[in-house]
Specification:
Length: 574
């Protein structure tokens, strides 16, 4: 982008040297916070359009297990002190669950899941739109790109909090006149969002410390050192807390978490640096090869005039890639954090360029190859956002035309049949029914755990091998004890078509059936229908075990289940 020069109106324009503009052109091409009344009015119009779009799509979005699981984990403990215990082997820090639990105490309804997600995303995009030092057209591109318009807003998960905290950090970043508690608080909270952001918080802490070291003066170095120590201590405590909550214990059922070692980490780092296109395949899916592999490094090269920021982007890319190769491949929500990190670092670079120009502390990157690299990096960032807008449209269309989960249909069915209001819900695979809690207050029973539970334990206490006969025995004994009908959802592909079969699914579980078991099951259960329209794996055939049961179908009792957790009031239709 064009040469950066000092501006008397609060910042250097990206297009330097243009003639005087009217309000619309100034709004579109000016750089810096939106300050005039007309600018803010137009900005508010963009924000309103974003909010209306996100709210509409969210109202049509079916909550699925990834979203509902976090909500159930947050509200199911009897007290706040039980929250860390509930998150054992979950792999996520506390912050999102704290927000959901607090919101649920204010409004005890599942809809707070969507409200919290949209509210956090709204805060993030508002800050970016009104305060980021980019041209407004680039800010508008970001607003309607896939991450803020869908993945970090409509999808109710913890990654929207990361986006907000990254932007808060960039907004308050000033290593020359620091207020150390601001970056410390941002990075502390960032470490509490997700494992990926926890790693990036460590990277950004290193950047802040390096930037502070470069501005030490003989008369103030003791104070600067104390501030750096304070920030490092606060952020270090945050990272340690996140690790304590997220680290799996020896009961985890996730095999990679049990086998992760130094050699795996080093190999993962090497692969992430050598093949960024393969590592971030979702983020750069719309960019043709081999250009996709160059884009991350072009963004790094664009920050050549700001070595600490360039190093942070490269280190962040390597750290995220190590997680993707060492633990799981990562989906768009995870890989998108690299784009948020890049925007944050370019935000900081623009602010630093403005300070250099206004304070004449160091020459701004307005000339030479660092300036050319910086302009190229900005244009690459803009091109990525254009493609992300197209990808966002694809995601929205898929959500509106399809379904994320078929679990809402159980809620509709129960609402239409008074005889099912007290029915217990059972699923196989067991995780299949985790999204039901959002739509239905009925109790959920997990036969592999032998207890009522809204979420499935990701531990080896959960039975690894189960059969259709064992499932029917569990359901029959459950009815003997609870004296009510049971709804059983079986989501294994080919179950209705194949007389016998075995299915293996994550994490290390198997389910099998033979002709005799299937014959007995179908003789006992009434098939209510098949629901197979979801784009995720949350499709199933639904069966009803009516009550009372005939004596011929009774089975030995299973061990008593744990007491039923307090139901969450209100199930809702998408």
């Amino acid at each position: 982008m064009a040469e950066i020069t000092a501006s008397s109106e609060g910042g250097p324009p990206l297009s330097g040297g243009l003639p005087e503009r009217g309000p619309l052109l100034t709004f579109l091409f000016g750089q810096g916070p939106l300050q005039s009344r007309s600018d803010r009015f137009l900005g508010a119009g963009l924000l309103l359009a974003w909010l209306l779009m996100v709210t509409f799509v969210s109202s049509r979005h079916e909550v699925w297990r990834d979203e509902a699981r976090a909500f159930s984990l947050a509200v199911s403990p009897a007290s706040w002190s039980g929250l860390p215990k509930a998150l054992e082997n979950e792999g996520h820090p506390l912050l999102w669950y704290v927000i959901l639990r607090a919101a649920h105490q204010i409004l005890p309804h599942p809809v707070v899941l969507k409200v919290a997600s949209i509210g956090i995303a709204l805060s993030a995009v508002s800050l970016f739109l009104f305060q980021a030092p980019f041209p407004v057209w680039l800010r508008a591109l970001f607003l309607f790109s896939a991450l803020p318009v869908y993945e970090y807003s409509v999808m109710a998960r913890n990654y929207g909090i990361s986006m907000l905290l990254f932007f808060l950090l960039a907004w308050t970043f000033d290593h020359r006149h620091p207020r150390p508690l601001r970056p410390a608080l941002c990075l502390f909270l960032l470490a509490q969002t997700n494992v990926h952001s926890c790693l990036l918080a460590l990277v950004l802490l290193m950047v802040w410390n390096l930037a502070r070291c470069w501005t030490w003066r003989p008369e103030t170095w003791r104070r600067a050192l104390g501030e750096q120590a304070l920030v490092s201590l606060i952020v270090g405590v945050g990272i340690a807390l996140a690790l304590v909550i997220t680290m799996p214990n020896d009961q985890t059922a996730i095999p990679k978490a049990r086998s992760l070692g130094l050699s795996t980490i080093l190999e993962s780092l090497s692969r992430s640096v050598g093949d960024p296109a393969g590592t971030f395949f979702c983020l750069f899916s719309m960019i043709p090869q081999p250009l996709a592999g160059l884009v991350p490094w072009l963004l790094v090269a664009g920050l050549a005039g700001f070595p600490a920021l360039a190093g942070a982007l490269a280190a962040g890319m390597a750290a995220l890639g190590a997680v993707f190769h060492g633990l799981h491949s990562g989906f768009f929500r995870h890989q998108g954090l690299l784009l948020i990190l890049a925007l944050t670092l370019y935000w900081m670079a623009h602010q630093e360029a403005r300070r250099r120009a206004l304070e004449t502390v160091a020459p701004p990157p307005g000339r030479g190859w660092p300036a050319a690299a910086f302009r190229l990096g900005n244009w690459v960032l803009a091109a990525v956002l254009v493609l992300q807008c197209l990808y966002g449209a694809v995601l929205i269309r898929q959500d509106l035309e399809g379904e994320m989960s078929s679990c809402w249909r159980i809620g509709d069915l129960v609402a239409s049949r008074p005889d099912l209001r007290g029915a217990i819900v059972v699923g196989e695979p067991d995780v299949l029914m985790e999204a039901v809690r959002y739509y239905l207050p009925n109790r959920i029973y997990v036969p592999r755990q032998g207890e009522f539970a809204d979420v499935v334990l990701l531990t080896r206490k959960n039975l690894a091998h189960f059969s259709l006969g064992g499932l029917q025995d569990s359901v029959t004994a459950l009815q003997q004890r609870e004296r009510c009908p049971v709804l059983v959802a079986i989501g294994h592909s080919g179950f209705m078509a194949e007389p016998a079969g075995e299915r293996t699914y994550w994490p290390e579980k198997t389910f099998s059936w033979n002709p005799l078991e299937k014959q007995a099951f179908l003789a006992r259960a009434e098939r209510l229908g098949g629901f197979h329209g979801a784009s995720t794996s949350e499709n199933f055939d639904l069966f009803l075990f009516p009550f009372p049961i005939s004596p011929a179908s009774e089975s030995p009792a299973i061990p008593p289940a744990s007491p039923d957790p307090s139901p969450i009031p209100g199930g809702i239709h998408p």
